[in-house]
Design goal:
about 110 residues
Length: about 110
């Protein structure tokens, strides 16, 4: 039991397994720091037992470790309206935290 879990962080949900590296919205902490998530769902990969939380699974936990803090590639934003000489350009680099899933308990 406990091979797959769904966690929520940064307004998004992620399907994770032990050993996975996942890029999530920026979380505070230094590389090497441990994190704990309350899972929304825990399931056995073989399709055996499935625990669904309301909203979190009681007694379940997902432990992870921060691998690195970083910034994504630049996304260029262009606003343009023809015939009125209107052009705006902007760039954006989103911060992220890469975490590695250590253990899923359920």
């Amino acid at each position: 039991m406990g091979n797959i879990a769904v966690i929520a962080t940064g307004g998004k949900q992620y399907l994770v397994r032990p050993g996975d590296k996942v890029k999530v919205e920026k979380l505070e902490g230094e590389p090497g720091k441990g994190l704990k998530f309350d899972p929304l769902l825990i399931a056995d990969e073989a399709g055996g037992e499935v625990k669904v939380g309301k909203p979190q699974v009681k007694g379940g936990s997902v432990t992870a470790e921060i691998v690195r803090q970083g910034r994504s590639k630049k996304v260029e934003v262009v606003k343009f309206k023809s015939k009125v000489r209107y052009t705006r350009r902007a760039g954006h680099r989103q911060d992220f935290t890469e975490i590695q899933i250590k253990e899923i308990k359920g």
